[in-house]
Amino acid sequence: MATDAEILVTCTHAECALKVRSPLLDLATVILLYPHDGIPGYEAARADKRVVQCPACTRAGRDGMLIYVDDHLRQAPPDMRTAVPVVFDAVVSVWKRALERLTVGGQAAEYQPAKTGPAVAHRLNVRPYDGHLLRPGNSDLTRQYGDAEPGVVARSMHVRQLKRDLLYLAYYGNRERNVGAEYGGVHVFEATLVGAILALKFDISFFYGVPTTTDLSQTMVSDAELRETTLETFAKPIYFDPKLPDNPIRAIAEALVYPLAERLRALAAAHAAYDRGLALLGQAGAEGQAAKKAAQLRAQALTALRQGMRQLPQEVPALDLAALQTSKAERKARSLAEVIAHPQFKDVPREKPDHDPWVDFVRDLELVISCDAAPEARRVAALAQVLTDLAGDDKLRKQFQAPIDRYQQYAAVIAAATPEQLADLRRIVGGLPETFTPYREALHRNAIVDHATAFYILAMLSEVPIGSARGKVTKQPGRKLVYHFPPNIEGEPKDLDAYADLVIEACKDGGVFVVPPFIMLERQKNESGYRATDAVGDLATSKDEKARRVPINGIDWSNWGRKGGSVTKYAYSELFTNSVGRVQAEHPGYLGPLVHSRGVGGGQVTLPTILAGVSPAGRGKQVDGYEWVAGIPVPSDGKMPTPGNWMGAESSCARARDLLVSKFTPNQASDAPARNCTYGKVPGGKRYECARCLERFQLSSEQPLLAANAGDASYHCTAPASRWPELFGAPLAVDSELGRSEYPCSWLRAVMRYAGGGERADARLFKTAREIVAVGKAAAGTTSGGAPEAGEAEAEAEAPPDAKGKPGKKSKKPKKKSAPLLAMEAAFARVRKQL
CA distances (Å), 722 to each of 85, 596, 719, in order? Predict the structure, then answer.
């Protein structure tokens, strides 16, 4: 007689997890997994020939019966052609039961952790991902998992399952899915998944108190532990070293590549003016030159040098080529093309390559390796000679001193560079792959999904507390619940137009607009494309799950690489995301070493870590009633959080409106009151008709009538004071930048605050205003071209300069309008009928 451990179990229902699982579970394991269901052993079932109700189907509301696969059935097994991976290998997970039974509507409804009865322990029993130590390079195409040979597991899709699990935990976001889609639908353990695992490991260890180890054997779960240990008591360490080395490429870039490239780029832009000035000074000093003509030439030369000086920012990038001597970087004789093509720097395809800092880094490297000290040495010497020649004329020398000093500040270090230093710099660039290799290997080692990490993922999705009192999350003493997305969000808009209508309604109070709908529509279109949720889609592990909706999750990574002179947080990069070992002595973990923040829902409301004891003093300790870990809400009182922007379109629109209003409201009570719409005060104007209002300010001309303020994230109107009654319905009270500030309204300042401050905020003002004007014209049928896409406008505005400092060429070929842009135009037309 066969023992229960030798009998396999399947089910009569085609969608049952016990049927679709591969390999099947044995009867002894099923009995252990469902200890309260009275499942008979094989011998007992044969004795009374009873029909055994499937426990998994019972919990899912299905009619399914267990099939005991004995020797007879092994010779003619049930149809397994529909076998697909289950959500977790531990098919009894609490979360799976909740997934089958529970949906969350578009409203911010509370939902409780699923319960299966008092004091029910969840034994480990089966290793997630079939026990494979998933690691970078694994692929569902080759079926290579861990260190196993490709193709050894015929039916498994473990990388897809891992991505899906991380999707529900908010560690695998929309940007990561976009990158993953570039692999042609094949699920690969690529760089973005490396970042997701590293971020997860950091958070559960630092914030939730899960222990860590650098001994992989300590994370392994034995067969005996599978039978005896429960998720509620599981406490093994994860394989993770919180003190990973810092990225060596970053040190080279920030000390040498970036400052040298910035100087060379600025000097290239100034060369023409300085060369013209030197030539004019040469003519002025020519033998026999008339004094009056010489004076005119010197005046022209001074003008040229001052023009060149304006190309050289006052803040000179710090550069010390002597640091080459102490650099521990590898050196190799290799061309830049060979560096770029090296496997260590193989470019990961992205949905939006213009967001990739690698492009700008390569341009900087091109400047660095082509650096020639000789021309700069000649210019520096010629300019020094000018001051020597003017030694007897203090007034004239003083006039020339400033532009000459500025050039020398930029060029002197380069002019003094020895051939040996420049050759060494080129060899350092050639050796970048070897310098990067040990760091990248450390990332890949720590991104292994060890047994312990896999079980913690299972526990988090099963709403079983993890960790210990060592974690920074202190409101849950001891073990702590970790957030996961609701299993499904129902009642979402059927199309983009329906979503846009929700945006419009969110701008009203009692049927009256209290928030400018055109600005809200522009913000929602460019933040999320008029959607708050996305389908699980190709990450689903069953047919019915594909259509289930989860919140749109935009993860902002703590990157150091530049894009157009600024840092891009667009996607995780092994090269440009900060190392896990980044030191934050004052507020450890606040802007985490990997994830900076998360923007979720239709308005992409974004939050970093907001946690007592971690956030800086003076920061709020809660937002929307919750603490946050890297933008993920922290459960409390045994409940999963339900922040509005995480719960579907309607509540997401309301939360995005509240965010816009908060940016419109002054930061402090002592600040000047916010200025509401002024267009309704002028003849023919309508309150909140932003498109026609902004059309008056010549935004497409070289001298628009709006300009950024100096020193703060605001703006002012530059129109003549005489036009104030015409433009704003009242005369200008105080003719100063402050007196002109935030005309026509403070809502545009609110838009600037979406981009923070500085040049990014200034650019955001004009991008938003120009798009609103263009879409307004298209909606009225007054233009055939319509508005440019936001991404297209940004690409043109941020076109990088070439090696000589000249602006990059802009593409003039119009792009086909996207669905969100067409929806925005249609929404503008509907709004105008309601104003």
Answer: 72, 47, 8
